[in-house]
Batch of 2 targets.
Target 1
Amino acid sequence: MSKPKASKPASSSGGLYKAESIKDVAESLGISTLPDNVASALASDVEYRIHQVVEEASRFMRHARRTTLTTTDIDQALRVLNIEPLYGHSPHNPPNFRRALPFSQLPTAGPVYFVEDEEIDFDRVLKEEKLSLPAGVRWTAHWLAVEGVQPLIPENPPAVPREDAHATPGAPSTLVPPTPPSPGKRQQQQAALVKQVLSRELQLYYTRLTASLLPPNTTDPTKRAAALASLRHDAGLQALLPYLVRWVGEGVVGALKDGSQSENDGRVLEVLLDVVAALLENTTLFVEPYLHQILPPVLSTLLHSTLPPSHSRHLRTSAASTLSHILTQHSTTYPSLSPRIMKTLLLALLSPDKSRGTRAGAIWGLVGIGKEAVRKGLVEAGGARVAGEDCMPGEDGGLGDAVVEALKVLQAPSDRPVPLDMRNEADALVVTRLRGVLGDFFAERLMGDAVWVRSILGDS
Amino acid sequence: MSAATPTASTPDVLSPSGTLNSLEPSAGTTATDRLVVEYLRSRGHKAGEELLAEALSGDDKGKGSALTTSADTLVQKLSVFSEKASQPGENAFKNSASIIQELASLGSSSNIQNLIASIGPVGAEEILSLDPTDKQEGFRELESWVDGSLDMYRPEFRPILFPIFCHFYLDLVQFGFKDAAQEFFATFSSSLESMHSATLHRLSTLRLPSHVQSDELAQRFRNEKYTIRMSRSGFGLLVGWLTDGVGGEATGAGEGFSGEKGKRGRAAVMRVVNNHLRFDVAAVSTTAMSPTAWEESTGLLSSLIPQAGGSAASLNNPQAFNTSKGELKLGPAPLSEELRAETEKMLREQAMLDRDHGAQYDVQLMRPTPQAGVISPTTADLLPHPPMFKTMDVKREVEKVRDARKRIRLEPSALSSVDVNTPQGAAARQRALPSICAYTLHDIPEGVPCCTFSQDTSLMAAGFEESYIRLWSLKGESLNGLKSDFQLSNIRDSASLNKVRERGGPVTRKLIGHSGPVYSLSFDPLNGSAAPPKYLLSASADATARLWSLDTMTNVVAYRGHQNPVWDVNWSPMGIYFATASRDRTARLWSTDRTSTLRVYAGHLSDVDCVRFHPNSLYLATGSSDWTARLWDVQKGQSVRVFIGHQGIVSTLAFSPDGRYLATAGEDLAINLWDLGSGRRVKKMTGHTASIYSLAFSGESSLLVSGGADWTVKCWDVKSAGGLPEKPRTNGMVNGSGGRDHAKDHTQDNIETYAALVRLLSVLADFKRRTDLVASFPTKRTPIINVHFTPRNLCMVAGPALPLGPR
């Protein structure tokens, strides 16, 4: 049973170096009548010698720890074979071979190549081109593996998704222990998704991370801090981002939906907001495509009517600061972002049937966005008046404080407040305007500081 | 055997030579006829001579009488068949006689007797060899017979094909049938390509008779016996087929030839078998042998195995040689009593100072635990060293003990028992596998042939193709030499010496001195991990090894002696002595205080590519381009072990720290693990897809790490048995695809496709993961040229980052 190689072209039996080439060389040396058998014998011998040199050169290549043969290798080989090396070739600038146009008079001739020899204009080179010195050899160090696991850092190649031969069909459910906030069935499905796309290392990381963050009562605070720090600084989490965003979203929904104003829910929300903040702070992540998923949980927390009372203030302020972070980071590349958020907040502030909590949240949101937003919302759109109507006179609650805080952002109150003098005519005018803009409730509270009132109203 | 009778065979000769005459009526062919006539006469074949003479024209015969002129050509022609005898007329006879003797010495089984009986006068067949067609037929028949044989015999018959192919090809080239040789090669090489691509390529470059005469490999094929291991029953079948033409042949195969032609083909096969093959007939059946076992016992072995001086019996089996050399002293080197006492004192003092309760056990670590079955050397066995010890020696020993205590223990064997996917598996993985820190060199204009770390990891040195060495302080400390302007007479004590020292030098230095690429570097081991090394050795293509002082940052000595590029240099584990390996086929031993060679280790048939000292400094291992590795007795300069099994150049090697194993890596992309005591191969580890550049054992010899041109670092479990998880594949084809692929990458001009190929292969390799390959860590674009374990088992690897795209 033999396997004849049909594909081998017949011409190859003559070797790589053709007898015709020998004849050409002979002609160039003035030997016009070279017998065929001599030429073919010479061609064979030339080829053998070339192979000899190349084999020798390949040793130098191997010892130089390279996989490409260079002209220096050939030179070294010639040197040890006691042949004068071919000077003038350097591996730094390999010659460019160009194919010549087919010669019309001799169509049978094979393709002809020549070395491209570029003409260099010295004037131009001397005047225009700046020669840059190559940077010196330097080294960098990174972890290729840490205790047998390759960390997903930019220096290492991305993990190749590999079919794990050992994984049994029943394994996924045991692979990922239940992640705390999201209940039963969804979690199963989510785990299955995680399994398909993520490497084992990332899956483990995800499980460990979510387990160390929630539930807030049982987890170790230092562990939680470490997890958040990891989210804030580690590279290579991009693949996890959609899962984390979704996890946060579901967590927020779960915590708010139950409506129970327990301490626990407040703490869960706090942690989730921290997670969002950490994700946004991580410079190696590309968050923008997920903004539309990140915003709802943040805004929900901010504007929800009944947050657990003990955490409500803190939750709303941190949600507001996250919101402001998003806006400062992404409003340039996502122009419609700030108008949309503004609109949402104004709606929450001004619509008649909203709860006080929502209004307070909206005001914190405006504070987070900035001075201009506060002026627009509270002063120009009459948000303060609406809020003031909800506040009972003499009450010392979240909404009133929020408005005052917001107004402080607009203009800091003066150090030595001089009260507005009702008898003074100009002052009386200001008070009337103040009542018109902020409503009676806040007008009363602000009347003690004439300078502050004036600056809020826009005339200094 | 009928082919041997002259009357039957001579007419066959005439027809082809006749056609040759008609094709090329030149003087050369008539000379051939004359030679034949003369030859037959000298051998006493009267009938054959007459027949031939009749067939030739009358004037030919007339010329034939004037034979004395062409005696030289006669010698030349016949030298093909000569072994070592000088008289051409009696060569063939001597040959067959020696074969018969040899076969007879093997045993007196009836099969061998048959074979002996069948070996008639060889002369007639040699004439047949002039006809190129019989080679084709013969090989075709042999191949179909091998392929048609029973499954259980096929693995042991397959190795026969290769030497016969080589000899047929060389015969054809030798007789000037260039085209026939080409055709023969093209037709039959494809089936052998997978296992023998390197040799086949080398042979394919031979085109002219003069090449065969001058080429080293061809001459080895001609002058040496190719050893093949075979079971007794398999050998019997082969003999049966050669003599009678039956024995396991597939039905239908070979029916197409006329009986006469088939016989001639078989006769050609037979001639090679008689003249150039040596059968190592084993009692064991082949089914008991592992698929890669043939590598150790097949090939042109006789010259690879060093012949013991004085003993007349030549050893043809590497195992026989290894056992004949007796036992080795592989235990740890002894420590002088004074040094030990001083070290123990120091350890106790330090333990008191640190109030470290764990440290009190350190003293126990000092006592070497005797290993079972290993002889420890005595002080007298070691190379001569200064009798007194220095403070530095004590510090080194103390640090050694501390390292041993603080070492991260790596237990890859824990991985084999658990499922990697479970949490326990992850924990086992953590215990089993090292942390690897990769040092990537950037902006390398040409290649960087070597890179090495000092034992205390304070320094890294890299040798460049531009003939210089660059030294980096990994701790960011400045590397200070001495100022250039000072009077030697002013230096009296260490204070005045410090005055002339440079201040605030750079953290990297260039050492210039060589005039060729620097191929190897080695830091002196005297300070161990207690302090930075004082000296650096380098080996270069300019045939020198140089010693660099890291105190003055200058070249101190150039060691000249090698005639050719020096490929590798390695310090003895106790300093003072070092060894070099060179292209001139020798390894040499030097001491730093002499510029002349102390010992020359000669015996390899090709370049010595790498050299390493055994941890107790009694032995030296070398790896060579003749595909073997050897172990030498450093003092006696004798080879004490030979390791045959690689199917390519041995590119790098490493000793296990416990002194019992040697790991070698070859261009066949395999890593072989050898037991030094017995000289046997423990196992073969495959998985790399390109050249392997460096090997290193972990501190407890349980884990082997390798790095190579496929841009990966791989971790191997030394203790596990290995093998493939799925069903074993057929007949040693394990390294087939890899080998061919490597040959391709030499000529690869588009590096991007190569990269894609490498990726693909690594994915493929993962599917065929061996169980002893415990982990593989790819880098982005960095071939790993050095892997190194610190004494505390942190793994450090180094390599140059390749630029993107073709250069």
Target 2
Amino acid sequence: MNKRKYLRRLRKALPDLSVKERENLIEYYAELIDDAYELGKSPREIFSELETPEEVAENYRRENRYSEPPIDDRRSDEPRRPAPPSPSRDSGFSPLRLLLRLIGFVLGVGLVIAGGAACVAYFVALLTIYASGIFLIIMSFGVISAHLSVGLIQIGAGVACLGAGVLVNLLAAPLCRLYWRLTGWVIRGFRPSRMARKPLFGGKKIASCAAAVVLLAAGGLTGYFGFHGVGYDFRKIAVTDDFIQTTETVSLDGSELLSLNAPDLAIKVIPTEEPDVKFTYYASSERRLERSEDGSFTVTGAALSAKTFFSESWNRGVAYWGIVTQYCDATLEIPVAYNGNLNIVCRNGFIVLAGGEYGDVTLQTRNGYLRAEQVVCNKLTLTTHNGAVSVRDCTANTVEATSNNGLLEAIGLESGTLTMQTGNGAIRLERVTADFTTTTATNGAVELDSLVSDHIRIETKNGAVEGTIRGNVADYKIDASSYGKNNLQNKSDGEKELYVRVKNGSVEIAFIE
Amino acid sequence: MDVQMKKGLLDVCVLALLKKGDSYGSQLMIALTDVIEVSESTLYPILKRLEQAGQLVTYSSEHNGRLRRYYRITGSGIERVNDFERDWREMERIHAFIQGVRRR
């Protein structure tokens, strides 16, 4: 028997009472049980001392028959007086109470949503800590036979993660309980609960505390021995090559194309007064610069890919990736006299092209941003999957910027044809001059600031189009439509052209002189 | 003891306890069981009846994170205890008289 079952049976045993009368009696017994718990009685003692719910119901009916005419208790010579209103909490209607209930409900809903989100985040974080710990321990089995110190560091980190998880759980549980108590108090119209509650820091936590301390200590000690083994050098917590910063000088020999494929490097391209190309990067026995027969350059080795993630982590330690990525910066210096084409491709790094005059320029990456600054060229093509594209103070006949997931921006650009396309991201044009301007976004706004262009074509599905176009509205043939607000009036006369298509978003474009 | 008399006495016992200070159900229960046999299901109707008669009032106060119902005696309740004591002294006089008659 427990409190809930006892009260449920009592409620079932009193079907003939009014709701209020029944609930008052149940509340009375709930308080008795709670008080008995507080006195340190065990459930067995409590429920053996109490009458059964059926007996309680029977006695109550009998006693109540006796007490029904309450006037019986009065002395016969005493004048009858009406009973004063009971100050019991259930009595009467109070506008203040109603207001508090309403406020409490509104605030409570917000607190429940926020609390729910926080709980989800907390569980995800806790799960991540535990998963990381287990992952580190499992992956250490691969490397420990060949590199004991690296293995010990990983095991230590994994065990410490498990300890940290237990500790976080210990600390967070009372906070969660406190939060839900506060939420309950607000929802009830700022009234405390009638139910007995567990203490915030109650329960058998000593075992958990001890487990957390033991795990943290064991993890720390194991890690200490591991670090001692590698001479406290953080670069050796995984098995990697020794990276040496290297500068290689290459003569272009009149070539019209400089092509570099460096999958895992982040490359900065700068002009130099020197006659030859210089490529500075971190080389190792695996990573080196090679020149193929067609004259293009490729950086080999130390590839970062999802395919090799587990195998490399198993063989070299999970910190391998963190260490390798410390050595990904590269600089390509190109002679100012070189006016040929430039083609740079990488996969997991950014590319910055800082100045220079070229023919056609292609910058391509997959996971990283692209930036071109103060570049003069014929055609500038920038393509990335996951990253932003920025073109600043450049001059080019044709500019094409594409990203699947990223912001596109052009600032201070002069171009014949400008084409920008993104899936998820905004497009921003500031002080851009172009004969033909085309921007396409799926989920993102388009912002214009002093755009000068004779043929403008703007499309977005989900996002606003707003900003300023330099020119006279009378000169433009306008074809604009949007499901949202649209300040443009379509008209068919005009030498210039403005085409705007927005599905879910507003259009607010102003023409300035 | 006659059931009705016992119930009447319980009423006064409860009021006498409350005259000393506000109290709550289980505390009253513990104090009463030292003097007279009573169960929880007997006490509750007494408290309810006394409340209806205006001899005590209830209020709720927070205790250990929950609400607990407290009982407080009213002027009418105090008057009833005083009446009982006055009647009891009269009963004692009558009792003494009865004993005196029996001895004669």
